[in-house]
Amino acid sequence: MLAMLFATEIIEGNWTFKRVPGIWREDVRALLKAEGREDLIER
Protein backbone atom coordinates (compact mmCIF):
# COMPACT_ATOMS: atom_id res chain seq x y z
CA MET A 1 0.00 0.00 0.00
CA LEU A 2 2.78 2.43 0.85
CA ALA A 3 4.59 1.52 -2.35
CA MET A 4 1.48 2.58 -4.28
CA LEU A 5 1.54 5.94 -2.49
CA PHE A 6 5.19 6.46 -3.42
CA ALA A 7 4.53 5.46 -7.04
CA THR A 8 1.56 7.82 -7.27
CA GLU A 9 3.58 10.71 -5.86
CA ILE A 10 6.41 10.02 -8.31
CA ILE A 11 4.01 9.92 -11.28
CA GLU A 12 2.42 13.19 -10.16
CA GLY A 13 5.85 14.80 -9.88
CA ASN A 14 5.75 15.41 -6.13
CA TRP A 15 8.49 12.91 -5.26
CA THR A 16 11.52 11.34 -6.93
CA PHE A 17 12.51 7.69 -7.11
CA LYS A 18 15.81 8.48 -5.37
CA ARG A 19 13.91 9.60 -2.27
CA VAL A 20 12.03 6.29 -1.87
CA PRO A 21 13.37 4.36 1.15
CA GLY A 22 15.41 1.29 0.15
CA ILE A 23 12.93 -1.20 1.60
CA TRP A 24 10.22 0.04 -0.83
CA ARG A 25 12.29 0.57 -3.98
CA GLU A 26 11.70 -2.81 -5.63
CA ASP A 27 7.94 -2.59 -5.11
CA VAL A 28 7.82 1.00 -6.38
CA ARG A 29 9.99 0.04 -9.37
CA ALA A 30 7.57 -2.79 -10.23
CA LEU A 31 4.56 -0.47 -9.96
CA LEU A 32 6.14 2.17 -12.16
CA LYS A 33 7.03 -0.45 -14.77
CA ALA A 34 3.47 -1.80 -14.68
CA GLU A 35 2.19 1.71 -15.35
CA GLY A 36 4.60 2.17 -18.26
CA ARG A 37 6.50 4.92 -16.44
CA GLU A 38 9.97 3.38 -16.47
CA ASP A 39 11.26 6.82 -17.46
CA LEU A 40 10.74 7.92 -13.84
CA ILE A 41 13.08 5.26 -12.41
CA GLU A 42 16.44 6.83 -11.71
CA ARG A 43 19.54 4.75 -11.22
Attribute tags:
2 helices; 43 residues; globular; mainly alpha; 49% helix
Mean pLDDT level? 96
Principal-axes shape call: globular
Total DSSP helices: 2
The largest β sheet comes out as: none
Percent of residues in helical segments? 40-55%
Pfam family, one: CD1375-like
Organism: Tigheibacillus halophilus
InterPro entries: CD1375-like (IPR047907), CD1375-like_dom (IPR056265)
Protein name: CD1375 family protein
Brief summary:
By secondary structure, this protein is mostly helical. It is built from two helices and no strands.
Summarize the helices and strands and which ones pair or pack.
Elements: H1 2-12, H2 25-34
Helix pairs in contact: 1-2
Task: Give your account of this protein's structure.
This protein is mostly helical and 43 residues long. Helix content is 49%, strand content 0%. The chain has two helices and no strands. The chain has helices at residues 2-12, 25-34. Helix 1 (2-12) packs across helix 2. The longest helix is centred in the N-terminal third of the chain and has 11 residues, at 2-12. The protein is globular. The termini are far apart. It holds the Pfam family CD1375-like. InterPro entries: CD1375-like (IPR047907), CD1375-like_dom (IPR056265). This is CD1375 family protein. Residues 1-32 form the CD1375-like domain.
